[in-house]
Amino acid sequence: MSARSALQPPVPATVTERVGARPRPRTSTVAAVGTLAAMLVFALWSLSTLDFTADTFTGGLDRVGPFLDRMLPLRFPPTADLLESIGITLGIVVCGTALSALLSVPVAYLAARNTSPYRWLIPVGRAVGVVARAVPDVVLAMVFVLLFTLGSLPGILAIALHSVGMISKLFADAIEQIDEGPRNAVRATGASRSQQFFSGVFPQVLPSWIATTLHRADINLRGSVLLGYAGVTGLGYDLRLSLDSLNYRQAMAYVLVIFGLCVLFEILSTVIRARLLGTAPTGRSLGARIARATRRPAPAPAGPGLPPRLTVDAAMRRPWTSERITSAAGLLATVAVLAAAAVWSKAAWLDLFGFWPQIPLVTERTWPLSISPRTWSDVADALLVTLQIAAAATLLSAAASLVAGPLAARNAAPNRIVRAAARTVLLVIRAIPELILAILLIILSGLGPQAGTIALAVGGVGLLGKLVADSLEEAPRGPQLAVQSVGGTRTQVFFSATARLSLPAFVGNTLYLLDTNIRSATLLGIVGAGGIGYYLVDATRVSRYDQVAAFIVILVLVVLVVESISFLIRKALR
Amino acid sequence: MKISARGLLGAAAAAVLMLGMAACSADKDTPAPGASTEAGTFAKDPGTLVFGVVPDTASTQQNYQPLQDYIAKVTGLKVEYRESSDYAALIEAAVSGKVDVASFSGFTYVTAKKNGAKITPFASIITKAGQEPGYYSEAVVPANSPITKIEEFKGKKVCFVSQTSTSGYLYPSYNLIKAGIDPTKDITPVFAGKHDASALKVSQGTECEAGFAEDVAVEAQPGLKVVSKTFVVGAPMVVSDGLPATLKQKIVDGLRNLTIDQIQAAGIANADSDNFKKTFYALAPVDDAKYNVIRELCQTTKATACGN
Fold it and tell me: Contact B193/A145, CB-based, under 8 Å?
């Protein structure tokens, strides 16, 4: 540098003077970090109390051999029966999820800040979602088998009501994120509320709504295994029968079929989502690859002169452009799929008109609520076990995802092969229903909470690992390039830029997993993992609806508390 | 799938982390005062007995806690209680020696034994003085039904409980076969899933025109007519053969003829609670031969759940 002119201000002496002192963290951030630390301590303590003795692993390994002998060779049921069961299961999932999406529209309309007609209806709409999320579909199914003909209808309705929890929340979030412009424009012309909604809101949220519904259908397909335990027909029921008669050759054949369906379904829904949202899927999963391969090329830029659409003649009628053909075909295909599902599921649809007289059967036995013969200390213990399973599983998943996630992220994996392999492993893990894992683990390691914890932990890696990888890939490129440009190594780029930028997302996703795990830990009570889930299922089994309702109320409260805590933490870390 | 060194390293790190956590939390309990030094295998460790339960009858929520405390008192060991509503899980646990003491339905016991579980039945719960351990499986029809005997179930929609139910499927199938009806071909079977659901659906008469359920569920459901009943052998309590001989003897002798009065006299908490009194009067001795009847039923009915 040449000599400076006297006109320039003096250079500040220290860095502190130049950039100012580092601001003190906000109180809310400190509180959030403190809460997270407390949760981490609780999770570590849970792991230590769950009694993972070395035998849990080694003893289990000794039993793998004999178990494989009883499992192989697989014995597939007759093809006709298998196809019928597949049809029923897919029918239940599709009908249930579609019904749920329909039910979710009004709930989301009331719950979204910008469409709710009255301010006080917003929390009401949100609360409906929370309650629906907290009541497990399998418990609903157990009640519905009393009201309706046995078969698939109880399952369809259970899925429909329970899924409103997730679908209505995401629908409402989508409404809150719209661009208000079109709606204001329509409103300025004097449109009614419903016209505003259908022309100003609905077209904007439709792609995201469809994506949400497909995602939920994925989850419901995995969950349908569990509905077999409530007597809902389909693959889950067949699996349960084979397991109950200790016919592992056939049971594992069903497991394979269910797993294959889950993988296919995930691929299909990824393709559809990608085409709908019109974005190039960034993922490297099999589904995303297929989606990229089937994407239409972008339309060629128009030539000189007026585009054909702008002539008066053309404006008089809506042309059949390729987009319109595609969307019309999509609509027809959807209708066809729904119709097929309604038939395949073999549901006794007429029951919907004739079950009303049965309702008192359930309601009169529900009131007053009671937890007898359990005591409050039993309930507290069981609740603690459930929370311990969930917390320990989340901790294990988070630890494993910190390794698996980066390996599956484009900007962190050492090379493409590792990344593709990691993505595939995560997809495979996601496609295994947790219940199946839990049953296998219980067979291998005995009853008790350990098997449930490991099952949830493994399943959680599939979800959390994927979310970690996605958030790493979505991290802003600027800081990463900056570190790279000053000669940072790959490791330095990762730790000082990529990882730091996606940390809040990781915390949020881990909290979401904890939330999911609390609900799943409850359900594992069905297969002997203990906890509050066992009490709930046991009460359902003997039709003590006063107890069922009491335990559900307790669960709703717990889920509410956890959701509020994670909401506050996410808000503070934003 | 290619595996890179780096990927392996990552997987190894994850495994080490998990195992490390597991090791950190390994049990460091000192053995309980009654822990035996004699040779034997335990489900968990020599200071603990694992007590596994599948609640057997669908009408009562058995309260096993006083019984569990009493076993702890008799043996001087810690008793860990594990309950599951899933038969297969408990059978597997018994087969792989993961339970020391257990209580399950007669059908479950026979299946576990058939699959190589090393267990010995020694007692069964009775709820009234002088009772034979067991209960009744009842064939029922709606109160206004013209059906008067089981032979007339032919061609009807018949409610059962579930394929693994002792009194809701196995005994009923046998009775149907005896009456000249093939339970897989001559009727339309409906599996209601629970005893009370089976009773309820029969009383409504639409989904099922006849059916089977255990006595308690039938009594609780109005609008039913009982056309026949069969005595079902009670659910056994079993002890693992792997336990040290003296300990096994201690459990069997201490419990075989146990009465509720003895449990109360021992000062066990909740032994005088209404719920416990309702579901427990005493234990009556049973042995393996008592369950031969179920093996015969299995042979006759060829039920899937028998593992045929």
Answer: yes
